[in-house]
Design a protein that fits this description.
Helix content: under 10%
Radius of gyration: 17 Å
Number of helices: 1
Strand order of the largest sheet: 1-2-3-9-5
Structural class: mainly beta
CATH topology: Immunoglobulin-like
Number of strands: 9
């Protein structure tokens, strides 16, 4: 059985309010018959205003040993029933992730304009 203790969900809303990058450790507990193993992983979270061409988030130096798992989301200022926003991770490595935001209407699909939304990322990976 694998247990991962994640203590940062209470910080997530604060991260997106202050729009600053935050990162920290996570302790995972792996329970096997007759033994318990603890290992370290790290997480990173940041929010940025969207810019045409995509937003790149650079992780702190040597934070991840290999490419982390990344979750991206978007926040929009005002909702419209006529426009749908979607985010796509276009590039990812152990050093950075790039996110592009697309908009869609009944007739068109294209890239979101600059400052039309806020892109939020959360990454978790093996500690370096």
């Amino acid at each position: 059985m694998v247990r991962i203790y994640i203590m940062f969900f209470s910080f997530l809303s604060i991260v997106f309010l202050i729009k600053a990058d935050l990162s920290g450790p996570i302790t995972s507990q792996i329970i096997d018959p007759g033994s318990v193993q603890y290992s370290a992983a790290y997480w990173y979270s940041e929010s940025k205003s969207y810019v045409n061409g995509g937003v790149t988030f650079t992780f702190p130096t040597n934070l991840f040993l290999q490419t982390p798992t990344v979750v991206a989301s978007i926040s929009i200022g005002s909702y419209s029933i006529f426009t749908t926003y979607s985010c796509v991770i276009t590039s990812i490595s152990s050093n950075s992730v790039t996110v592009r935001v697309n908009t869609g209407t009944l007739l068109t699909i294209g890239e979101a304009p600059t400052n039309s939304c806020t892109v939020n990322v959360w990454a978790i990976g093996t500690a370096n």
